[in-house]
Amino acid sequence: MTDLRQPTDPSPGWQLDHLREYVETEGERGHLWMGVPTLLLTTTGRRSGQARRTPLIYGEDADGRYVLVASKGGSPDHPAWYYNLDADPRVLVQIKGDVFEAVAHTAQGDERAALWQLMTKIWPAYDEYQTKTDRQIPVVVLTRVS
């Protein structure tokens, strides 16, 4: 099994800078990005088997679960992290200094609709991203493993 606590980080650029600042300060800097909350999601690469870490905008539902949107800015393809968790839903999450294991699932039907509304209140551009693509943008729910 992949050690999710030893991830490979994104290529150099804003995501890597954001991620490093987040990790170095336990989210004191980096948790809020452009005014919205972000977490660090570590998935297992579906082809490489390596742990991959990505900073992502998140929300929290009424049940205390964490919610992500696999938008990739409205690209025709899902983001790599989504394909990874679709292949292996066991993930590692960091929110500020709290690092924990979780299991992911893709919301469907009424659950998806309600969570989409939650997430578009946090990041309204998700609605615009959906108009750019023919795919239904996945909404992902992360449930903490006790």
TrEMBL record:
Pfam families: F420H2_quin_red. It catalyses: oxidized coenzyme F420-(gamma-L-Glu)(n) + a quinol + H(+) = reduced coenzyme F420-(gamma-L-Glu)(n) + a quinone. Gene3D superfamilies: Electron Transport, Fmn-binding Protein, Chain A (2.30.110.10). Transmembrane segments: none annotated. Belongs to the F420H(2)-dependent quinone reductase family. This is Nitroreductase family deazaflavin-dependent oxidoreductase. The lineage of its organism: Bacteria, Bacillati, Actinomycetota, Actinomycetes, Micromonosporales.
